[in-house]
Amino acid sequence: MSAANVVQLHAKGQPAASGRYLSPAEVCEMVPGMTVGTLKAMRARGTGPRFSKPTGTRGHLTLYAETDVVAWIEAAKVSTREQP
To answer: What's the distance, Cα to Cα, between the start and end of the chain in Å?
Structure first.
């Protein structure tokens, strides 16, 4: 699914903070080394970035708010001894 195919969705009239939702493949493009299979396994374990299932829990459509992916990446930062 290309970015052109992802439509801005609105939850109760409110757009996502970035206004952009990503497919699992697009999340993998943002995170070097991430695969769609790994992302799917993370969802099954309850780890990884928050996601939405707009077609219901049994639906095949999974979307990630871009802001949630960025927040998940930022939350995983590790400081070295040389960094505060």
So the answer is: 40
CA dihedral 44, 28, 24, 38 (to 10 degrees): -20
Residue 7 token pair: 């439509």
Tokens 């999974």, located at residue: 62
**Strand ranges in the chain using DSSP code E only, listed in sequence order:** 10-11, 14-15, 21-22, 64-65
pLDDT single digits (tens) 11-22: 444 555 558 999
Give the tokens for residue 80. 């070295």
- Cα-based distances in Å from 23 to 27, 63, 81, 82, 83: 6, 5, 36, 36, 34
